Amino acid sequence: MVDNKKLLDARNVVMNFGGLKALDGVNVHVNKNEILGLIGPNGSGKTTFFNVITGLYHLTDGEVSFEGENITDKTPQEIARLGIIRTFQSSRLWFELSVLDNVILGMYMREKPSLFSSFFKYNRVRSDLEAKAEEAKAILNEFNPDLANNCYKRAQELALVDRRRVEICRALVAHPKLLLLDEPSAGMDPAETKELMDDIKRVRKTKKGLGIVIIEHDMTVISTVAERVVVFNFGKKIAEGDFSQIRLNKEVREAYLGKE
Amino acid sequence: MFLTFLLQLKNSIMLGCQYSLIAIGFTLFFGILNVVVFCHGDFYIFATFAGATFLLIFLNLLPGIVSVILIAVALFIAMVLTGFLGVVVEKVTIKPFRKSNPIIPILSTLSAGTIIEQLLKIFYPAGSNPQIFPNIIPAGGINIGEFLFGTNEIVILLFTIVIFIFMYFLIKKTKIGSNIVAISQDFEAASMVGINVDRYVSITFFIGASLAAIAGFMNGIYYTVFRYDMGAMAGIKGFSASVVGGLGSVFGAVIGGFLMAFVETFAAAYIPGGSAIRDVFSFVVVLLFLIFRPSGILGEKIIDKV
Amino acid sequence: MIDFKKINNLTRRKDMKRRGFVMFLVVFLLTFSLLAFAGGQKEKVVKIAFIGPLTGPNAAQGMGARNSFELAIRQANASGEFPYKIEMLALDDASDPAVGANAANKAVSDPQVVAAAGHWNSPVARATIPIFHENGVALVIWGAIGVDLTDKYGKMYPEITRVCPKLDAENEFLADWLLTKQGYKTFYIIHDTSSYGKDCLTFMKIGIEKRGGKILGIDGVNVGEKDFMPLLTKVKEKNPQVLYYGGVVTEAALLRVQIVKAGLTNMLYTGISGLADQKFNEVAGSAAEGTVIVKPGDPKEVKGWPAFVKAYKDAKFNEPMGAYGQYAYDAAGVILAALKKVGPDRKKLVSAIRNIKYKGLLGTYTFDDTGQTTLVSMTLLVSQDGKWVKWEDSEYASGKRKLPR
Amino acid sequence: MKKGKLLLIGVFFELLLLALIVIFLKIDNFLQSILIFAVAVGIWFLLARKTRMVENLGMAMEEKRKELLLIALLMVIILPFFFLNNIYIIHILILALIYAIAAVGLDFQMGSTGMVNFAQGTMLGIGAYTSALLCTTFGVSFWIGLVGAIIVSGIFGVILGLPTLKTKEYHLSLVTIAFAYVGYLLILNMKWTGGPDGIAGIPKPKLFGFSLSRSIDIGGISIPGKMLYFYLVLLALVLLIIVASRLKNSWLGLTWNAVRDDEISAKCYGIRLMPYKLLSFVFGSVFAGIAGVLYAHLVGFISTESMAFSVDLLLVAMVILGGMDNIAGVIVGAILLVIIPEKFRSIQDFRILLYAVTLILMLVFRPQGLIPKKVRVYRNISGNR
After folding, report:
1. Chain B neighbours, 3+ Cβ pairs < 8 A
2. Class of domain D86-365
């Protein structure tokens, strides 16, 4: 049962790079507690859509609102603080930091780091950080015990799968309300993909009210996890609905499935 | 009054020729590898040494030969030597660090520059003293009324213009140019479509360094006195010029070079006590550009890719 | 002491190798400690410190002076008038006050050092003078000509004396010659922004204005500047009779060459000892012709000179003597004379040097109450056919050639 | 492995190190010093190859950190007593510590936040000039001069940091270069800074009444004033190290590293770049300012030579050589680059050349520096290592 309160609502979003229209008036909304699949051929503007929502790109026209609040002109930082957290296609961890530090930094927004305390209440700051470390370790353990065991590895030493896992952990500890996953399964073999999907399912079970948008090429992922699917092509939304309908949609077939 | 203004204009153009030639090198290197080669100024002074040395040798070995040919040959040798120096420096101090933190190449090239400078100082005969550039261009020149246009100035100006035109054709019209441009737009892609990236990197460094060589040679002709430690400042000025013009844009580098020269010359000429702090003015201009228009005059806007 | 057995047990493998290493460590440690703490026990020597720019931009001057200084010491040892061996402790100040301060500290912290001669750069002297004062070691300045060194510090500290003439004397002499003897009226002053250049400006300005000359303009340039065209274009507009440059050889030569380029042929180019180096003529080439400078006491006058030059040659130093060699030589002479009188005692030497009357290479040295030598003689040089020629025997004096006006 | 034994190993190595340093400083002969250096390095490699010594040492550093650091500090405290008869070496040691302070400050930008800064030497100069001017013209005490310098250099840190809003990497490096030159030229050409003459006669600080310039007698042995100054600087260094390590091990350090490693994901986790970059500049500049004050009052004379571009480069080299984002490393780098050249004075002209060559070799073969940075360790969490 999905309660149908809109979490994110993007109305006719337009994004221009010079001449080229990366997004051409798309309307997308995400509900609480739902997993929205976002598919479309390469260069159809999926990632651009993420960048617009998270405020990395400033959109040319249109409006994005989150929980009824207009976030069109907000900075990435402000948007993140509202609870929209994303992962990246080419995973963007802090590579010279340890896995543990990466996850701990995910909790940055739950903190109010103050210079004063780092001088004069240093011990408290440390003990607090160590508590955070415990929490980080716990969630790493949930996803993959070896990660927890090698939590002092530098992020750059990790395998691709683990990088994505760490990225998801990092995102979760930020207590997001809306989680944007950009091709989490890219470059994984079926087994790994399977694990990943289980992880995602588990996440949405444990985290109440969390909305997830997931960009994917791998249709099996979409078909298993996504409750609703939106299809982009050339920066336009060409279809919307659940996967079974989508796959029958003629336009989509030409644009997308036709390719496979 | 107005005459003085014209003369100052000429002075700044003379200075601008050198700055822009150095700046082009910076901009080429940055374009192709996204590195700033901090020893570029030392290429320049190295070339001045090389040019002077070979001119002296020629003038002593075969006196009475048409000096134009001698100059051409000496310049050519200087260009080739400096060009190879550039290639070597790239191989040793930049190639190993293509993937690493940009701080590293900054430092490696800086120390490479120091090494060149020190080698000149230690191993060139009486290298720590000021050196003489043989006076090859006949004195005199054209006098338009009070306005004196020295022969060497005319030579430098014409030659610089030729170089600019040559560069334009090289970049726009030749295969080399198009490939270099391709690499600067997307290193990986270029290597995928089968451009021998390393080769073109070397070529670029050869070209850039030999441009610095030309600037160095002109430096000799124009000032006739030079010293091993005059490279560093020239390098920093060239770098500033290329940034002001917009790193990555050759034409911008030219504009930037002349702009810097104008600022300096007129600060020295018209601001009371300005000659002592002329560099302050040029650097302030650089700072203003960096703060309000980091992409420079012609550089394309810097957006970090996601 | 450390129980090596334990350490062996720590390091898990039980072969003899490791014991070997640890022993090796110990042996190496002991040997080098011995090597370190041995030393110092030598025959009775007295050291005189020499400080000067042995590296850096002014290394040429520094090395020449160092050699001349060493020459004097060698001669003293050879003379056998001293019951102990005299050694020179040559220290580098690299023309950098901080390095100079290090060197001064090194000198005063060596108990064998009884006195010191130092410095070509005035800023370095300003940094080291307090150190020598604090430790009560006499410092004879051989090359730094900043006026305040004696006028200010020399007055305060008895340790400080100077054998070379100070900078204002030279400018005074030059100004007098230009205005009263030659009757030039209008001047333009360019100086580098070093303290030398600034002092030049100060005293030349005084000298000119005192004699009713007119200064059309003053400009500073940074050391290392090479492009003087904007400045000279400005000067051309003002059209002075004389351009005075307060600075040193490289910029002076660059300036000279560009003066000709800028077509300022009817203007006299002049300066003081900063230009007094054959290098200027070499570098400026034909442009140098007709440059007039003042240089303190041309040594070639004094009769001891040929012997000195010969001795310097025979000593087979690698570097030429430089413009200040003779002063370093006499600085050594002053110290040695005082040493002969009162023996190796820092305190006694201080007063002995101040009150000395010493017949040196360039003349008889006595010091006034600021520690400045009273021995002053100036020579006027003019660049003629790529050489510095004494004004008196130049073709300009004889009227064969004319100075620009 | 028993902890006591670990401690023993640590102490043993520290003693060894101390002995080496003392010997190295005592010897005046260039070749001998080189020889010692070679032997030391050789032994180190042998140990690393053939025995567990080095691993154990590493373990000791982990387990017995506090104790070992304390002992090390004690050793540094007794160090000057080896040179009672040679103030010069104490002078050099003081300089080393002073540059270490400035280098640790520079590391906030280069190591923690990944911004190259060629103006640290200029900041040092600014601090030195501030205190020098205050003390000579207004005759205030060293301590007030120090406070003044901290404030002024902090302000300049903000000014230098502001352009980082717009610029990165090479552009930023040019900003700092330009700043360095402008600062240098302005101070050189202004009247009230003494221009090229610099400022002489900067007083030695007074501690509990007596001035550090004169030597005092304690139980027969006279302790030279230099030595007291040494302890003053050492105290400053220790305090600043504590400050630095607290900054780096608290949230500030983490966020700095986040900004260094990836600005975009930093943004996406709510980290605002500007304040953190500014902070790293401000702290760095304040450290440089303090170093400058200590320098000015040590030499007693300050002029623009002490803030020339070469000083900026030297400081950068110290950070690289020692190891970015690692306080211990940076300090080692600073001390090496101050002490070794003193030995190289005997080969005068080749000195700078050797610098440059070593730096390049360093970058090629060990870019992470002599003592590379380590990952943060959180003690009381389960399954550590």
Report:
1. A, C, D
2. mainly alpha
